[in-house]
Amino acid sequence: MSLLWDREMLILLGAIAGLLAISSLVGVVLSRQVSSEPARLVVDNLNARIRSWWVMTAVFVAALATGGTGSVILFALISFVALRELVTLTPTRRGDHRTLFWAFFVFAPAQYVLVGIQWYGLFAIFIPVYAFLFVPMRSALAGDTEDFLARTAKIQWGLMVAVYCVSHAPALLMLQIPGHEGEQAKLLLYLILVVQLSDVLQYVFGKTLGKHRIAHKVSPNKTWEGTVGGIASATLVGTLLWWITPFTPWASAAIALILCIAGFAGGLVMSAIKRDRGIKDFGTLIEGHGGVLDRIDSLCFAAPVFFHVVRYFYT
Amino acid sequence: MKADPLAAALLAGLTRLVTGVRAHWICCAPTDAPRVYFANHTSHLDTLVIWASLPKTIRARARPVAAADYWSRPGLRHWLATQVLNALLVDRSGGSGSRESLRRLAAALAAGDSLILFPEGTRGEGGSVGALRPGIYFVARECPAVELIPVHLQDLNRILPKGEVLPVPILGSATFGAPIRLEAGEERDAFLNRARAALMSLGERP
User: Fold this and answer.
1) Which of A36, A220, A287, A295 stands 20 to 30 A from A120 (CA)?
2) What are φ and ψ of residue B63, in 5° steps?
3) Mutation to test the A interface, candidates B165, B168, B205, most A Cβ within 10 Å
4) pTM of the complete model
5) 8 Å CB contact of A100 and B155
């Protein structure tokens, strides 16, 4: 897979670097101004988040720069860590041990091999059909029937959300869009940019204007003001980015809105899992953000929807 | 015997990568003073995990107390035990071997080493902490100045349970609790129950 590094791509990367630089400046100014203890905590967390954004952006761009292979490997690692975080806080039993071994070391890597060799037919059904059927069979062979259906469902769900859904992001690189050959990297960048900006902007609007909570039992930080403001502004950014995509401006607006809504749903669902397990974050790998799954919760839901919308309407 | 520092650094890094274990120190900070770290035992990885999660300078002087019948078999295990972990191999059959073992453990503490031991004596299924065997009581009585740190290992039985060879990369954790000592006039069983309760209460933390 060779990917084009054209002028559009470079402009966009420059803009992202500029945005991060401005954020870092704002972070420095804020940390000089705050005096109260609770505000200090919020600003310290904000600065940790911004530092992590620099690292994540650098890693993502480096992976894109290697062409397709680097991106596939990066997302495979992300899936692996996300599955690890999810399985860790899901109670499993002794009888699940070998099933989990298959999930981590056979199904997850195989899914990304399918992305790498661009075998769409098997990529699309491998986990929903073959892993889905194999998981309960392997656990049944282990002989432990207690909570069998719940245990099976948890492993299947983990594979679906952390591996199958996430693998649709690098799978964008296999889409052949007439007139836009070799430009798939920009689609991937568009997806990540809109989804992550939507998260960031929901956070910013929520912190500044947020009052009315949407589902305070599930996620105390999600407010109507933050969500609507974040989705509206991220949709606007997505619309303005139409020139890097095969979409018209109106189509880009509609697609960005779909991405933001799917992303919001992902964040909400992952929060529900965290509240059920009584934890705040899935992990501690990314400073200021929590675990990998905390950062990609919206991507899990947005990536497969985006992939299929583009595939249906543009290829 | 001097441990191989390169192999030790690699093994510690690999252990942390596979098990994802991070040490949580509550109620006390790591120090170089000789201490006894005692933990619940559910996996072959337990020894490595406690050892690897200690800060580097402490790790260099932390000696796992391991069963001679398992760890002295020639091959990788023996090399690990003697060259990398600097383990104290003890006889768990009882009798005069135990008295000799106790003498060696006390000598190691007196020389400034720390000990890592699993007072249940064998691996459990991971549900609850089993009854503690009296070895830890004898160590506490022999070395009354030494702090005994309870260490609760979480999810190691899910990473590599008893009877499995291949690990699953679940994220484990090691919680280091408040030190305990043998109180003046404390009976053996009362002390062992208190030590076991200290381990279990660490496991109940969120």
Assistant:
1) A295
2) -110, 115
3) B168
4) 0.90
5) no
Scored b (16 or more CB within 10 A) or e, A44-63 reads: eebbebbbbbeeebeebeeb
Name residue A229's amino acid.
G
Q: Where are the alpha helices (DSSP H) in A103-183?
A: 108-116, 120-125, 132-142, 148-158, 166-171
Chain B residues in contact with A84 by the CB 8 A cut-off are 20, 169-171
Nearest-neighbour CA in chain A from B167: distance (Å): 7
| Cα angle A12-A14-A16, degrees, rounded to a multiple of 5 | 70
Q: Please tell me the distance in Å from A88's CA to the nearest CA on chain B.
A: 5
CB-based contacts of A310, cutoff 8 Å, min separation 6:
A172, A175, A177, A187, A246, A255
CB–CB of B168 and A283 under 8 A?
Answer: no
Q: What angle do CA B66, B71, B72 make, to 5 degrees?
A: 120
Q: Which two tokens stand for residue B155?
A: 């999810």
Instruction: Note whether B6 and B85 are within 8 A (CB).
Output: no
CA torsion A96-B23-A275-A218 (nearest 10°) is -130
Counting Cβ atoms within 10 Å, is residue B20 exposed (0-12), middle (13-18) or buried (19+)? Answer: buried
Asked if A175 and A187 count as a contact pair (C-beta separation under 8 A), the reply is: yes
> Distance between CA atoms of B55 and A307, rounded to whole angstroms?
46
Quick one: which of A74, A158, A276 has its CA closest to B168? A158
d(CA B117, CA B106): 13
Q: Three-class SS of residue B24?
A: strand
For helices A184-209 and A37-65, the axis angle rounded to 10 degrees is 180
- CB under 8 Å to A98, separation ≥6 — which residues? A138, A142, B164, B166
ipTM of the predicted structure?
0.84
Let me know how long chain A is.
Answer: 315
Asked if A100 lies within 8 A of B166 by C-beta distance, the reply is: no
Give the one of B155, B157, B168 whose C-beta lies nearest to A104's C-beta.
B168
Pairwise CB contact (< 8 Å): B168 & A97 = yes
